[in-house]
Amino acid sequence: MEQADLIWHNGEMVAWEDAKVHVLTHGLHYGTGVFEGIRAYETPKGTAIFRHHDHLDRLFKSAELYYMPIPYTLEELRQATHELIAANELRECYIRPIVFRGYGQMGLYPLDAPVEVSIAVWPWGAYLGDEGKANGIRAKVASWRRIPHDALIPHAKASGQYLNSVLAKIEASKAGYQEAILLDSHGFVCEGSGENIYVVREGVILTPPQTAGILDGINRKSVIRIARDLGYEVIERDLARAELYLADEVFMTGTAAELVPVREVDDHAIGDGQPGPITAELQRVFDDTLHGRDPRYAEWLDVVAVPTKAA
Ligand code: PPE
Fold this sequence. Notes:
The chain is of the alpha+beta class and 311 residues long.
């Protein structure tokens, strides 16, 4: 991975290589952590963090669902992130805040272990590759089902839950595909290993509902809003696996991945095997939105003052 200079760790700026934890950190053993993936982009107003408040709000909700009180306010973490981006002199970056149970207590009762908070920022290019973003990726339905609501909390972005995504991703990669699509425990389409998923059929955009075990993606909300503003009908409903194969277009969204067309699922070409027109239009408007080129969505940008390196 690419590195930056500084990481914010429990209220201090520390050197990248010094941002370390003890091997008996609770979260390392039991996955007791929650995190966010956020991106900042260069915009005409300077570097801006996309839907920063919404991501931090989800971080606080994820923490609460796992009984982890965060020892900072949302505003403190927002400010810390601004300072961190400025201190690292980054114009564009991925932002990874993580809240986790630290060192001091072993065993499955975590409430006496300290809650630690770190924020890292670094440059992270196209998650599924530039080629994938431009021409679409090949995806495979995983044999692993997405974690059910009655075993874990799909609405929480929790570290331990990602073992499920990791298994699906390894399986898809070893089979030669760029991404995995997970079905929910009822066999309906759920999401990618790190992205929400959408199908376009006869001009209508379909996406699995909250009850399908999805992560309630910030980009999902954004793209649904953009699609409706463009006049498209967006329906949240259960999707049968074959509806992926029969789709005119399939695409995915996520912070790391952004908006990525899917050109094949399980070796079935989607449409004519190239990104379709609705996907391309949404991708263009979404990209303009992220980069502050669309005034309709200016309220989603949290502008950071970053000194230029040359100055
Ligand atoms: N589902 C899952 C399981 C998921 O992890 C993500 C984000 C999404 C949907 C899309 O959510 P949103 O980013 O709010 O639109 N995945 C993050 C982690 C990726 C990683 O490899 O780490 C991300 O995109 O940052």
